[in-house]
Amino acid sequence: MTHTLFIKELAKELGFDHCGIAKAEQLDDDARRLENWLNKGMHGNMQYMENHFDKRIDPRKLVDGAQSVITLLFNYFPSERQRDDAPRISKYAYGNDYHEVIRARLKTMLLRMQERIGPVQGRGFVDSAPVLERAWAKRSGLGWLGKNGNLIHKQAGSFFFIATLITDIPLEYDGPVADFCGSCTRCLDACPTEAIVAPGVVDGSKCISYFTIELKEQLIPDKMKGQFDDWMFGCDTCQDVCPWNRFAKANKEAEFTPVPAILNFSTRDWEEMTEEAFKTIFRHSPLKRSKFAGIRRNINFLKY
């Protein structure tokens, strides 16, 4: 209990908004759901989703002797929005690349645990390894999986990055919470491409985020024209319409302060941007994941 309290206080100190802990064990139910999702081809060209299946469902295969999975939420909801006459960007990409920001916090967290507790072994992950982050967040009581597939926290909504720290020490474990989506279907009704094919099931191969971020060096299929609702990089529609996000509050993390260009660029500014300018302005931004060519492709797709 002492170690658990220390870890949760440490999480707050390092800027994480919420922390939950679950026992490290195989995720049998999630394994079946993931296998079914893959077999239906809902991952599109994201072949990496097929890799390391055994590690995705069992954290003990990622960290020897793993006993606990610590899940951390980091708020990214911005205090400002883009101008109306610009192609839209998902809110998670307004500031600096979250991988770099959160990975550094996880390293610090593990070091502090080792200093306080002793020879703790562990590994931190943030959307960069075969870890079912949302499943662990649900197990550790940080929320439920909404009908849009996102983790929803009852007091704070869903605009969070999810990080995971798998460690070999036993801790006090949190239990799951109830599902409060009820009969609401706003996310299913609002999805521009009808990618939410059933409550909690998102066909990734139909999602705007897939086409604008994951689909590399390829043309977006013509059949998708007119369906993107001006989304150039990612999509927040299913979160924007979610009633639980009325509780979302602006983050206070300096690293996630919006890049001025994201707030101020008009459509014309985006169209006239050079590759050199892109590399300079967005050198620390998640937008660099799509590269200049991908951003140009997305902008041109919205035009015609």
Automatic annotation (TrEMBL):
Binds 2 [4Fe-4S] clusters per monomer. InterPro entries: 4Fe4S_Fe-S-bd, 4Fe4S_Fe_S_CS, QueG, QueG_DUF1730. The active site is at residue 127. TRNA binds at residue 216. It is found in: Cytoplasm. GO terms for molecular function: 4 iron, 4 sulfur cluster binding; cobalamin binding; epoxyqueuosine reductase activity; metal ion binding. Its cofactor is [4Fe-4S] cluster; cob(II)alamin. [4Fe-4S] cluster 2 binds at residues 191, 207, 235, 238. The keyword Cytoplasm applies. One of its GO terms (cellular component) is cytoplasm. It comes from the Bacteria. Pathway: tRNA modification; tRNA-queuosine biosynthesis. [4Fe-4S] cluster 1 binds at residues 181, 184, 187, 242. Keywords: 4Fe-4S, Cobalamin, Cobalt, Cytoplasm, Iron, Iron-sulfur, Metal-binding, Oxidoreductase, Queuosine biosynthesis, tRNA processing. It catalyses: epoxyqueuosine(34) in tRNA + AH2 = queuosine(34) in tRNA + A + H2O. Its EC number is 1.17.99.6. The keyword Iron applies. PROSITE patterns: 4FE4S_FER_1, 4FE4S_FER_2. Residues 169-201 form the 4Fe-4S ferredoxin-type domain. GO terms for biological process: tRNA queuosine(34) biosynthetic process. Cob(II)alamin binds at residues 56, 127, 148, 151, 162, 209, 235-236. Catalyzes the conversion of epoxyqueuosine (oQ) to queuosine (Q), which is a hypermodified base found in the wobble positions of tRNA(Asp), tRNA(Asn), tRNA(His) and tRNA(Tyr). Monomer. Belongs to the QueG family. This is Epoxyqueuosine reductase. It comes from Chitinophaga arvensicola. The gene is queG.
